[in-house]
Amino acid sequence: MSMYHPKMIEFRRTFQRMFNEVDRHIEARFGDRYPLHPARPRHGATSDPSSDGLFNIGADFTMGYGSRYGRGYLIDVHMSTLAEVPEEERWEIVQAVVEKLEELLPRYFPNRDLEIFGDGDHFKICGDFSLGSI
User: Residue 134: helix, strand or coil by DSSP?
Assistant: First the structure.
């Protein structure tokens, strides 16, 4: 039995579907640039895009203490390779992730005011995370 409210469960599912779409987009665009980690399955080999391919793209909630933007979801772009990735290329990939998220946020969350901000050396999704009337 889940300890989360059904609206929170649905929010998380929608969030995950959005990040799965971002992952597929980024894999198609950059997935052949570097060799996979030897223990990592090829893209599409599992039912979870975060478990295969070169990228694991997601976000972790933070209360935002010490941030001028407050609470939100820090965007995480992890590359599963043993190769060294130059900082310029890593930045190009992160920028592509942010651009795709900016495109998808209004589609996946049409009734929420969500934005992406640069916060130090990270990007963060901030805005309306309320569950409405529960």
Answer: coil
